[in-house]
Amino acid sequence: xxxxxxxxxxxxxxxxxxxxxxxxxxxxxxxxxxxxxxxxxxxxxxxxxxxxxxxxxxxxxxxxxxxxxxxxxxxxxxxxxxxxxxxxxxxxxxxxxxxxxxxxxxxxxxxxxxxxxxxxxxxxxxxxxxxxxxxxxxxxxxxxxxxxxxxxxxxxxxxxxxxxxxxxxxxxxxxxxxxxxxxxxxxxxxxxxxxxxxxxxxxxxxxxxxxxxxxxxxxxxxxxxxxxxxxxxxxxxxxxxxxxxxxxxxxxxxxxxxxxxxxxxxxxxxxxxxxxxxxxxxxxxxxxxxxxxxxxxxxxxxxxxxxxxxxxxxxxxxxxxxxxxxxx
Amino acid sequence: xxxxxxxxxxxxxxxxxxxxxxxxxxxxxxxxxxxxxxxxxxxxxxxxxxxxxxxxxxxxxxxxxxxxxxxxxxxxxxxxxxxxxxxxxxxxxxxxxxxxxxxxxxxxxxxxxxxxxxxxxxxxxxxxxxxxxxxxxxxxxxxxxxxxxxxxxxxxxxxxxxxxxxxxxxxxxxxxxxxxxxxxxxxxxxxxxxxxxxxxxxxxxxxxxxxxxxxxxxxxxxxxxxxxxxxxxxxxxxxxxxxxxxxxxxxxxxxxxxxxxxxxxxxxxxxxxxxxxxxxxxxxxxxxxxxxxxxxxxxxxxxxxxxxxxxxxxxxxxxxxxxxxx
Lengths: 328, 326
Known about the structure:
Chain B: It is found in: Cell membrane. Chain A is an alpha/beta fold.
């Protein structure tokens, strides 16, 4: 296997609050191969976005990376000085935010924002950067980019602004793009276009994508592999087809069961009882065990570590037992 | 844009007419103007004659129209106490007040904005906390007290700066005198302009700080960081510019107040400006001066507000659209 673009090992992110230290991310490990799209799913508060912020080095106090390592093409980036990390942001790792209506500075034209970003990272003259900005706008599907480049963000619709945001994220040809819920704030009719656009542009450039979302439909259509997160941990990670069609972890099973299907019978959707624990009250052992229908004694004591199983990694004791049985 | 300006001009004229009405009403209701002019021994015939010659027997509306007509030609009548045209009296003192207000406003902006930015960016540094504490003092201490304290420290105890007056002034043209061109004139400006600008300076500092903190939390600043822009570009290019709209509003309004409320500072420093003249006018019931001063201040406020509205459109492109549509 080629060297992964991004390699995260045992990442821990904590938030120091008056009521104690909250572990937002607790021992997360995953790799993203060049050109691969990794979907990251989970409920709100599962740590999806925090993982993205940690990778791009934008965890703000009182948050901090408390352990583990993040490597970009083998080079460690989680402990870089701020100035070195700034050079990586936008240049080698691009980011797309959730809400295009608020991601762009209202006081500058989209051209000014593009040119500024391009010239921060690439040694181009103002004219060359503008040329490049126009090309990028054309590529992300903005009609009449020569004219629109001098427009202000408020003169663009939400979908068009997200296209501008994508152009901004891609303007220095990054190796990795982190898309944090890129379609959540958009009209349903526009969502598919934007996802297709991200996927096409990144495929053309060989850019790897970390796609954070809670929309399973988006994941199923776009991602190569998917990581299911729960309470700051990865419950299951593997090829998207397997995880969606035959999930192993009981939480993943519940999550996939909760997706309404068009051709399926009109049965009731599966519901996972209870709700995700607050960060201040993560239960010992497996964080999911109080809600798990298949939990047994060991689950409340022992924290499961990721097990290789059917080409994926799943953090659940059920499969440890199975392994033990199979071995005996 | 033109339609917007015309609309605002019409509104401004409305405001000025209203103020003119109040100013005019002062003549009618604060005693009989004839008594202010004639001596006590004047006979009823003489009084009636003066009344007729002043047009005081005409209907109210005619008198008001006449007053407005004259005011439009900068004729505000004769001061009771000085027996000189009010326009000339105010004109002589206006440069002193405007120069003082200008230097105060510059001081407030040049010191207030960087302090605000600094306290927002380095929120936890001891210097930022010191600025915050000082600004609290600046906001809460009354102007006259600051002035007296400054005089006590820098004029009386240390003897560095003059405690009163404008110093040497140079005459430019027929109607302007300036203290900017002589060393003593500049030295004389320091204490009064700090006194007058202190409140505005702390106000601007606190406003910039609050706005900066607000803007630094926004998504577009987070996105600017994710794009790898330099700290400098983010703080000053993106964040500071977004704080400017409210700062311009407040500064504009405060510039009006600086001119209008220079009265106290001018009194403390015996500054030969319009404020001192107005105070004398109040003491001597010199209504023509009071009325003219009222109109002048209203005029300045209206002009400043118009300028502020136009500045918005320069800073914020979103407002250009709404201004165009209006």
